[in-house]
Amino acid sequence: MNQRKKTLNPDKKLACDFAMGDIVSDDIDNWINTPIHEHMHKFISLGGEIVEEMSQHEDVHECETKELMDSIMQIPKCMYHYARMHHYITDKSLSES
User: Fold this and answer.
1) H helix intervals, 1-97
2) Which domain holds residue 24?
3) How many domains does the chain have?
């Protein structure tokens, strides 16, 4: 997964980072056996961090609308790619069993 990460778009890279971190901290078997919805909390936290960061600007209008929209849209895109990776790895694991 780490080798392919170099050629991925930013949304996929971030999802890959989350997945690799979870796999390392939780163990691959625990990660595979955990329902995908239980992994989604980290993306809600990411959204909160983005909103917090944007609100720290002295002039809220300082943030360009495009930048804000891109940041906000990165969250569901990352969730989608994370869920796809989880599904793919789970399917591969089950087919090898």
Assistant:
1) 2-5, 10-26, 28-33, 41-55, 65-96
2) 11-29+39-96
3) 1
